[in-house]
């Protein structure tokens, strides 16, 4: 199968090979050294200050979302959540479960956050913001500068879910005023799912240590303390952490984050040019590098996903809920080549010839 979804994505050979090896015992100086290197590379790749920390949780991206909320926010906060799709909605669900007071800015699916919309919230009190910088479900990339200025002016604590845009967009936690940044192993990191990463500013680390413990498994205090010696409180997904190590080192050897982002961007541009003759419209009015969300006209988007999967050995990313029949997505993260996009485009031309896509 050729995988154009947004996670799990196509994995490179060297990372795949680690998955077939025996899982080593991990309470060792050798594994601690790997973890310290993982932390340092994550801090380097997110352009964090020396006083920042990175922690690795065993659990998919949602574990990091929930960990960020329960370790850095309390009932005394007032949070502003940007909700433009299923991941924004997830932050509201997490806050509801944990009794964190919030207001949400509901955006129409596919629409970016604007200065005008944000300015309506300028006079109200908020202590923190929760935002999915790339709302993967709709392919909308929010403007980090807009968010940064708004939060700086109001002295708000900024938690950014960058799960699908780390390594796909230019992000710097120090430049962009981000206190907590989240990512996950199965997106642009192109490893199997199961590990999520939080990068915390000095201010965020302080906040975590001042916040009462709410959960044992997702407790960031013990993760931070254990991390100082390159360890985790519980048995982590050892193999995935070794795979992340391999991937991070390869990115560094190949020219670093900028090169990686350029690769994702050029794949996105290549695909967007090739898809022009088809009767699909861009669903997102602020497209990311990571994914192209396409609105179909008069043909079932879910049908396209199913035919590609069953008859061509290709996975694109279907949408759920009310967008199921009208939107599908093509990802640009993971171990993909221009050639792979030619394969996808040829399959779509073939479907057109068969009358499965009209126009
Ligand atoms: C993938 C993703 C998540 C996490 O989803 P999991 O299934 O828990 O890994 C969260 N936010 C965004 C923006 C994502 O793309």
The CATH architecture of the largest domain is 3-Layer(aba) Sandwich
Query: Could you list the spans in which at least 5 consecutive residues all have pLDDT below 50?
Result: none
Query: Could you tell me the number of beta strands?
Result: 15
Which molecules are bound besides the chains? pyridoxal-5'-phosphate
In angstroms, what is the radius of gyration? Answer: 20 Å
**Number of helical stretches of at least 4 residues:** 12
Q: Quick one: biggest sheet?
A: 7 strands, mixed
β-strand percent reads: 15-25%
The CATH homology group name of the largest domain:
Type I PLP-dependent aspartate aminotransferase-like (Major domain)
Order of helices and strands: EHHEHEHEHEEEHEEEHHHHEEHEEEH
The class by helix and strand makeup works out as alpha/beta
Termini separation comes to 27 Å
* Main sheet strand line-up: 2-10-9-8-5-3-4
Q: Give the integer mean of the pLDDT values.
A: 97
The total domain count is 2
What percentage of residues falls in helices of 4 or more residues?
Answer: 25-40%
The level-1 CATH class of the largest domain? Alpha Beta
The coarse overall form would be globular
SSE layout:
Blueprint: E1 2-3, H1 13-19, H2 29-45, E2 53-58, H3 61-72, E3 79-83, H4 86-97, E4 102-106, H5 115-119, E5 128-132, E6 134-135, E7 140-141, H6 144-153, E8 157-161, E9 180-184, E10 195-200, H7 202-210, H8 220-227, H9 238-253, H10 257-274, E11 280-282, E12 291-296, H11 301-312, E13 314-315, E14 317-318, E15 327-331, H12 338-353
Parallel strand pairs: 1-13, 3-4, 3-5, 5-8, 8-9
Antiparallel strand pairs: 2-10, 6-7, 9-10, 11-12, 12-15, 14-15
Bound molecules: pyridoxal-5'-phosphate.
